[in-house]
Amino acid sequence: MPGEKLRHASHGGRGSAAGARCSRRVRREHPRYDQRDVVRPTAVERVPVKDARWTFTGTWKETGRAKLTAEKGAAASIEFEGTGAIVAGTYLTSGGKLQVFVDGKPDRTLDVFSDEKGNRGGESVWHAFGLKPGKHQIRLVVLGETYPGSTGSDISLDDLVVFK
């Protein structure tokens, strides 16, 4: 549902953006940490791609709860208030590449190619934590490029998970 409040979400990698539990406090067991509790951000909202806060340019096709495109230059943007975010989507056997911008600055280039036999939906395709508290904008630009081993250049987005 639009504006759905969340209790738990994954903290990154190609992990599930919806299924894993996250703790507000995590004990670090590594020599470079001084063993104090580390405060982790809390997922506070899930914003589906069908929510009016998302802006899309280019041609995007609705596929269930997701939006899909392979069009070079097509883009998706959203503003949020928080200290972190996860963009959830599907890793596709036909997955391609996209460029991510945060607050107008290039962040990184990603691929959404599934290195497994099938597609994997509801996954974290991009994340950032430790942003300054306040308003931020994420812009995802489709490069229209095929990832090595992929059968296409598709990009599929599900939603944004906001952290504070």
Describe this entry's structure for a reader.
The chain contains no helices and 13 strands. The protein is mostly beta strands and 164 residues long. The chain has one domain: Galactose-binding domain-like (Jelly Rolls). It starts with 24 loop residues before the first strand and ends with a strand.
Order of helices and strands: EEEEEEEEEEEEE
Question: What is the helix content?
Answer: under 10%
- What is the first-to-last residue Cα distance? 20 Å
The assigned structural class equals mainly beta
Parts with pLDDT < 50 across at least 5 consecutive residues: 1-31
- Give the helix tally: 0
Give the amount of beta strand, in percent: over 45%
Task: Assign the CATH class.
Answer: Mainly Beta
Largest sheet at a glance?
A: 6 strands, antiparallel
Radius of gyration: 16 Å
Write the layout of secondary structure elements.
Layout: E1 25-27, E2 37-39, E3 43-48, E4 55-57, E5 61-63, E6 66-69, E7 75-81, E8 84-91, E9 96-102, E10 105-111, E11 120-129, E12 135-146, E13 155-163
Antiparallel strand pairs: 1-2, 3-13, 4-7, 5-6, 6-13, 7-12, 8-11, 8-13, 9-10, 9-12
In short, what is this structure?
The chain is mainly beta and 164 residues long.
